[in-house]
Specification:
Chain lengths: 150, 475
């Protein structure tokens, strides 16, 4: 599938990631699934529930998830993905990310180096849970494909 | 009527794209077994290889988590809704792994290790944690003792004071043999004795706007044991700017407060108190007194909340203010909401860096001596020359009972405005209190009322005792 988002969503994710540096920022992507496209309509930033290790872990607890779902449902939207930041680490899923991942959801990861947002990539867990595959991302305005720096 | 299972979006492709499934079952275990029997590809996403539900899979019956009910045995009835609710977790690859425990530590912490909510994992988190105590005084004492004993790996302490004999009534980190020694050294010695596995990092300095961010940045949790408003606002602001939880405590006479200010998840100190009180309104412990055991209770609460934050367990005091009344032995709790207009952690913050906190709180870094002062020696000489000089003691009667300067007239500060007629407007007047703060307030009141020849005794009766008359006891 392809993740479709607008520039403002991406900017908001990057700003959130920078604002929470050196802690990990996290949030949910609300939107709709249409054929082989997941279209982001709304972001739901969530407070990182990890008070013990917020520099290198994030947690959206079930209550926060339920609240977000209730909010999105009112607008006819579903949770289609998750975003989080990797402070001073590459925008690749970690072993920890994989272990805790849900299938189908898009995992957008933004690298933040010394407080500045850098590369971002979106990932989807493989069915066998053994790996993540990078997912194509499309910026809808102007139909420009977002080419993440490698 | 069957039980309805709500399927979250990530799992719908495994159940034919549906958002719910109906089936008949008597308990949650049966629900899950039947779900897997029908939709086998769900299995690896719900269950770990050992057959247990994955930690990030939460199951609710109606609105309650089965962990609070009877887990898999939780009964379900026709018409009930069972929801599978994701927790979403992850993080960077190279988490500094929590340090391992030595055999000696395993033995030392055995009462923690057998607690289900601590265990080896929690104890390793404590060992890996870095906690900063601002102040090694009344509140910092029990906090330091318990955090050290609990095995917090690194304790930072900020203090610039030396141990004074008047501290010993409540600051149980320090002993009689340490009077005159720096509080940091005294604290380090005591902590080493309690638990040699604890690293103590000492910051022998006053916490200031210049150094606060650099000192706090390296710690996970900050426990605020300060006794003055400028530093309290400074600690709060620095914690918000750095995204650190601030475990707050304060005490006065027989009452204490505690909360956890953590702007990421709740209100900060400024949401509760946007402005400091006018200077001089709220006396410090040195001026107002404090029951020695009170900081023991509040500082222990701070240690407790700090440990809970590190472990990530229990219900934190985030968003709650606990008020303790020692005389009534009563705990009350106030709900605190985040102020959307908070200038620091609200929606449109106007404070984005540390400010001048002494100015913010209306005082100089040293007490602002607005009026003319007189030293103890000068006062003594003048009294010998001028027997008409009036010395007004503005302390409380119970302080007067403890110590007094011969010939001084007691008019407590609170009564002064009503008792001005007792004073001669043409006389030389010198006001004094315990240390010189309240007497400056008295000076303002007298001058506002037209008294021209008024001065305040610098350092109060304490200076008098130290510099002139050792017969007058210090307190």
């Amino acid at each position: 599938m392809t993740l479709v988002l607008e520039r403002r969503h991406l900017e908001a994710i990057r700003r959130h990631a920078e604002a929470d540096y050196p802690r990990e920022a996290c949030g949910l992507l609300g939107g709709t699934a249409e054929g082989d496209r997941k279209v982001v309509v709304q972001l739901v930033p969530v407070a990182n529930a990890r008070t013990d290790a917020s520099r290198n872990r994030y947690l959206i607890d079930p209550d926060a998830f339920r609240r977000a779902v209730a909010r999105l449902e009112r607008d006819g939207l579903d949770v289609i993905g998750v975003y989080h930041s990797h402070p001073d680490h590459p925008a690749r899923p970690s072993e920890f990310d994989r272990e805790y991942a849900w299938p189908w959801l898009s995992y957008v990861i933004v690298e933040v180096r010394s407080g500045r947002a850098g590369a971002q990539h979106s990932w989807v867990l493989a069915d066998d849970r053994r790996s993540f595959a990078e997912e194509p991302v499309t910026m809808e305005e102007g139909n420009v494909v977002w080419q993440s720096p490698s | 009527m069957a039980v309805t299972i709500l399927i979250p979006t990530p799992l719908r492709s495994y159940v034919g794209g549906r958002d719910s499934v109906q089936l008949d079952a008597r308990n949650v275990g049966e629900v899950l077994d039947q779900l897997i029997a029908r939709h086998g590809t769900l299995q690896p996403h719900l269950f770990a290889e050992d057959g247990r539900l994955r930690s990030f899979v939460n199951v609710y019956v109606n609105d309650r988590d089965i962990r609070e009910l009877s887990q898999r045995e939780t009964p379900v009835q026709p018409g009930d809704t069972v929801s599978i609710v994701p927790s979403i977790a992850g993080g960077t690859a190279v988490a500094p792994p929590s340090p391992k425990l030595s055999h000696e530590e395993v033995l030392r912490y055995s009462r923690h290790l057998i607690l289900p909510d601590v265990g080896v994992e929690g104890q390793r988190k404590l060992k890996g944690a870095r906690v900063l105590l601002v102040g090694a005084g009344g509140l910092g004492s029990p906090a330091a003792l318990y955090l050290a004993a609990a095995g917090v790996g690194t304790l930072g302490i900020v203090d610039f004071d030396v141990v004074d004999v008047t501290n010993l009534q409540r600051q149980i980190l320090h002993g009689t043999s340490k009077v005159g020694m720096s509080k940091l050294e005294s604290a380090r010695d005591r902590i080493r004795d309690i638990n040699p596995h604890v690293e103590v990092e000492m910051f022998e300095t006053r916490l200031t706007s210049e150094n606060a961010l650099d000192i706090l940045r390296e710690f996970d949790v900050v426990a605020d044991g300060t006794d003055n408003f400028p530093t309290r606002y400074l600690v709060n602001d620095a914690c918000v700017l750095l995204g650190k939880p601030n475990v707050y405590g304060s005490i006065f006479r027989f009452e204490g407060q505690a909360s956890v200010f953590y702007a990421e998840a709740g209100p900060c100190y400024r949401c509760l108190y946007a402005e400091p009180p006018p200077p001089g309104l709220v006396p410090s412990c040195a001026e107002g007194g404090v029951l020695g055991v009170l900081p023991g209770i509040i500082g222990s609460l701070q240690a407790l909340e700090t440990i809970k934050l590190i472990l990530g367990r229990g219900d934190s005091l985030i968003g709650r203010l606990v008020l303790f009344d020692a005389l009534k032995l009563q705990f009350r709790e106030l709900r605190l909401a985040k102020d959307p207009n908070c200038p620091l952690c609200g929606e449109h913050p106007t404070i984005t860096g540390l400010i001048d906190y002494a100015a913010f709180c209306g005082i100089g870094a040293e007490p602002a001596y607005a009026g003319p002062e007189i030293t103890a020696a000068e006062l003594d000489a003048e009294r010998r020359r001028n027997p008409d000089l009036v010395l007004v003691d503005v302390r409380e009667p119970h302080e007067y009972e403890i110590a007094r300067i011969d010939g001084a007239r007691l008019i407590p500060l609170g009564e002064l405005p009503q008792r001005l007629n007792e004073l001669d407007g043409h006389a030389e007047i010198v006001t004094h209190c315990h240390r010189g703060v309240r007497s400056m307030k008295a000076l303002e009141i007298l001058r506002a009322a037209g008294f021209a020849k008024v001065r305040s005794l610098r350092g109060g009766i304490d200076a008098w005792s130290v510099e002139l008359d050792g017969e007058v006891p210090r307190y």
